[in-house]
Structure formats: structure tokens, C-alpha cells
């Protein structure tokens, strides 16, 4: 009897092992055939060439093979869960429009997984012609597919396609499909907002305190909703110095010197532009940085730049910016309400400004094309003493997504883009970097080959503009 049981168990285990092995073999075979059919290379991405998902061991490949399909599934799931609330707000016909949007998103997900060519846009939005011209240019160069295009181009196209699915709807064209995630993220971090606000309340004009505020803004960039949603501890102000061991390049003192000693008369008194990245805690930290600059008279005006459409899941739009101001102003927490009233005063008297929404920030080109494609924006930035570019996407656009040698100086990688002095505050979340000390990247690779995709390491880099 025992022998019979043993045989049955052995057969069962044997069958399970065979099934698992067969399943793994099938997946491996599929991956191999996909790579072969789409000319995926096992070689590392070459230097001075754009990053692309055609290199199997790149973060771009992982993005379109794994992250993007998951982002689209999460979005579909979120829309289905919000359906009752959406119908309550927009009416019963929203049910049918929501079904069509979800259908479009499923098609988009299939196109990514099967590496289909990019489609033209036939909507009536003002930038459709520009996008179609750009896609035609990619088609002529055979770089119009998810795994052959430049990574930056393909990702920007992805979020434009998602937006188009909603633009075809009469009722939901202004609906922020990532909005609920961003609002929940902010509300869940009230304890952190309060701790940070208390920690910065007594900071004065000094090099030490300026560096503290700049680094607070930097490390807040760890929080996004598309790669890492981990939030800092509410002890961040007490432990900020401990983060220095993860700061690979630190030019914060040079930034302070720029605002205090090296200002040219043409940009005095100083105005600072902040090109925002993520909503939630990072936006809160960026508002506090602006308040500090004004209160300490390091700047007389701060302008904030946001995305024109819901973008990269957690990027700040005008609605997110205004939501944060109202959230603080209407809070029952006295410190928040006080800050909200201060921000309202700054906005009313043009000390803070939300810069006119510009489509350039969501175009696929790098910033070196700004002078040609958005000359007014370029000129406006040139009036500023300093432009602070937040986050990984802005950094990639500064470098035009080019795989530079890790030791190439930051200013040399900007392709001539320098309307004013530029400061990059970036937690590293992609395999793109420059301006590093010799051998540092090699040492980091030995410790963790995927170190550049975790958001754990960061840089503060400055490109100084000499004015005549």
C-alpha cells in the first residue's frame, strides 16, 4: 500500500516537474524567437548612440517587454475600478466611452508586445501634424517600432497614444487617467509633508541650508509611480546627510555660488525656473524649495513648468499643481493652511508663476531642439538666472538619450542646449549618465549590475552659462 502511494506521489511530482520545465522551455523559446524576429542584439548599447530597446540587456528592452505592458494593464484595471465614480460624474454614456478607451488600450498593449509599427495620429489636436511628420521621419529611417526606435521617442509616443484614446471621447477628453493615483499618493504622505515642513521652518540664508533644501528636492525625486513608489521616511530631514553616500556627483555648492556671487547683471535680480517631474511629495518639496529661494532673497521670482498631458504616470500637470495648492490651503492642519496662504499670495503677486503649458515638454525630441521647435520657451529660459531640471526623463532629454561615456563632462553632453545655467537634480532610474569620476561606474557595476535602474543613486550637476 505504501509503495502504491509512493509511486503515485512520484508520478505526480514527475509530471509537475515536466510541466514546469516544458513551460519554462516554451517561454524561453518564445523570447528567443521574438528576439530573433525583431533583430534584438545581445551586444551592449554602443557609446555615443541613442538608447534603444533593440539591445536586450538595456533598461529600454525591459521597459517595453515588461514595464509598459504592466503599466497599461494597471491603467485598464484602474479605469474598471473607477467606472462607477466616472459614470456618477460624467453620466451614463461614459460607460460606453470607457469601454472604447479600454479597447484602445488593449490594442496598444498588443502592439507593444508584438513590436508593431507606430501608427499616425488622425485626431484634430494641434500637435497631430507635428507628430505625424516625426513618425514619417522615423519610418524612413526604419526606426518606427517599439524595439527599433530610440527609447525616448518610443516612450513619448506611448503616452501620446494613451492620451489619444481619451481625446476620441466627448465626455472623458479632459479626464486625468493617472490622477487618482497621484492624489492618493499625496494624501497617503501627509505625515511626511508635516515632518518635512517642520524640519525646514527655521532654515536661513546660508550655504549649508541652501544645500539642505536642494538635496531635499533631489531625494524627493525617488518618489514616482512608474518605477519606484517607495516614499522616504518621515525622518528624512534628520537622515539627509546619510544620503550623501549615494550622491555620485554633488555640485550643490557651485549652484549656491552661482546664485550668490556669480550672477551676471543681465539676470539680476535672479529668477529661477524649475522644470517639474513628479506630483505628490516631490512637487511638495519643489514648492518648499521655491519658498526658500524667495524668503532668503536668493531669487525674486520662481516659475514652474508642467506637462501638457497626463504623462509617465506621475508627472505634474497644471491640474496637479493647482490641486496641491488647494490641498494645502484648505487643510485642517494649521501648518499646511499657513503654507497654502503663503503660496496663494506668491501666485497672486506673480512671485510664483505656473508657466503657460507648453507642448514641447511632451514632444519626443531632446532639449537641444528647443531653440528650433519652441523658440519662445528658449528665450524665456534665457531670462532666468538658473533652470533646475528635475528627474530622470528631463535628464534623458538634456542628453538626447545618447549613451555617453560615463566620464564625459555634463556640459559637453547637452548638444549646445544652454539658454541659461542649468542644474540637473536626478535620482538615476535608467542606464544613462555622464560626468562621473573615473572608474566609479565600473565599481558600481561590480556591486550591482542594475544599480542605475533603482533610483538609489543620484547626481546634482551644473552647466554654467558664461554671459558676455
UniProtKB/TrEMBL annotation:
Keyword Hydrolase assigned: yes
Chemical reaction(s) catalysed: L-glutamyl-[protein] + S-adenosyl-L-methionine = [protein]-L-glutamate 5-O-methyl ester + S-adenosyl-L-homocysteine; beta-D-fructose 1-phosphate + H2O = D-fructose + phosphate; beta-D-fructose 6-phosphate = dihydroxyacetone + D-glyceraldehyde 3-phosphate
Domain Damage-control phosphatase ARMT1-like metal-binding: 63-438
Listed Pfam families: ARMT1-like_dom
Cofactor: Mn(2+); Ni(2+)
Family: Belongs to the damage-control phosphatase family. Sugar phosphate phosphatase III subfamily.
Notes on the domains: Subfamily III proteins have a conserved RTxK motif about 40-50 residues from the C-terminus; the threonine may be replaced by serine or cysteine.
Protein name according to UniProt: Sugar phosphate phosphatase
The organism of origin for this protein: Drosophila mojavensis (Fruit fly)
Source organism phylogeny: Eukaryota, Metazoa, Ecdysozoa, Arthropoda, Hexapoda
Amino acid at each position: 500500500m505504501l509503495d502504491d502511494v509512493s509511486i503515485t506521489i512520484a508520478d505526480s511530482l514527475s509530471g509537475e516537474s515536466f510541466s514546469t520545465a516544458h513551460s519554462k522551455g516554451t517561454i524561453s523559446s518564445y523570447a528567443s524567437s521574438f528576439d530573433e524576429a525583431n533583430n534584438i542584439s545581445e551586444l551592449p548599447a554602443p557609446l555615443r548612440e541613442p538608447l534603444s530597446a533593440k539591445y536586450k540587456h538595456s533598461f529600454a528592452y525591459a521597459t517595453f517587454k515588461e514595464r509598459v505592458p504592466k503599466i497599461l494593464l494597471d491603467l485598464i484595471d484602474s479605469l474598471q475600478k473607477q467606472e462607477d465614480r466616472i459614470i456618477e460624474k460624467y453620466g451614463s454614456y461614459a460607460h460606453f466611452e470607457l469601454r472604447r478607451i479600454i479597447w484602445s488600450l488593449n490594442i496598444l498593449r498588443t502592439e507593444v508586445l508584438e513590436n508593431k509599427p507606430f501608427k499616425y495620429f488622425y485626431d484634430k489636436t494641434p500637435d497631430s501634424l507635428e507628430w505625424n511628420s516625426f513618425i514619417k521621419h522615423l519610418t524612413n529611417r526604419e526606426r518606427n517600432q517599439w524595439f527599433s526606435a530610440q527609447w525616448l521617442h518610443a516612450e513619448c509616443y506611448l503616452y501620446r497614444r494613451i492620451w489619444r484614446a481619451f481625446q476620441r471621447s466627448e465626455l472623458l477628453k479632459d479626464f486625468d487617467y493617472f490622477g487618482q493615483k497621484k492624489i492618493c499618493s499625496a494624501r497617503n504622505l501627509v505625515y511626511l509633508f508635516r515632518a518635512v515642513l517642520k524640519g525646514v521652518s527655521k532654515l536661513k540664508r546660508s550655504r549649508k541650508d541652501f544645500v539642505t533644501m536642494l538635496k531635499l528636492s533631489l531625494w524627493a525625486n525617488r518618489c514616482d509611480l512608474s518605477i519606484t513608489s517607495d516614499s522616504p521616511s518621515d525622518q528624512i530631514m534628520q537622515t539627509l546627510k546619510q544620503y550623501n553616500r549615494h550622491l555620485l556627483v554633488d555640485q550643490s555648492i557651485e549652484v549656491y555660488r552661482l546664485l550668490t556671487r556669480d550672477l551676471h547683471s543681465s539676470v539680476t535680480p535672479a529668477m529661477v525656473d524649475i522644470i517639474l517631474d513628479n506630483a505628490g511629495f516631490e512637487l511638495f518639496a519643489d514648492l518648499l524649495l521655491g519658498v526658500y529661494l524667495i524668503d532668503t532673497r536668493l531669487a525674486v521670482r520662481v516659475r514652474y513648468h508642467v506637462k501638457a498631458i497626463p504623462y509617465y504616470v506621475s508627472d505634474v500637470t497644471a491640474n496637479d499643481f493647482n490641486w496641491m495648492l488647494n490641498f494645502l490651503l484648505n487643510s485642517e492642519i494649521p501648518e499646511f493652511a499657513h503654507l497654502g496662504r503663503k503660496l496663494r499670495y506668491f501666485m497672486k503677486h506673480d512671485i510664483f508663476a505656473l508657466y503657460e503649458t507648453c507642448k514641447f515638454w511632451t514632444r519626443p525630441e531632446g532639449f537641444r531642439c528647443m531653440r528650433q521647435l519652441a523658440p519662445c520657451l528658449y528665450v524665456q529660459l534665457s531670462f532666468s538666472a538658473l533652470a533646475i531640471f528635475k528627474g530622470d526623463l528631463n535628464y534623458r532629454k538634456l542628453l538626447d538619450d545618447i549613451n555617453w561615456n560615463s566620464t564625459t563632462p555634463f556640459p559637453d553632453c547637452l548638444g549646445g542646449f544652454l539658454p541659461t545655467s542649468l542644474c540637473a537634480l536626478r535620482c538615476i532610474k535608467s542606464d544613462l549618465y555622464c560626468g562621473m569620476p573615473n572608474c566609479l561606474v565600473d565599481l558600481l557595476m561590480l556591486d550591482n549590475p542594475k544599480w542605475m535602474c533603482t533610483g538609489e543613486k543620484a547626481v546634482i550637476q551644473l552647466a554654467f552659462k558664461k554671459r558676455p
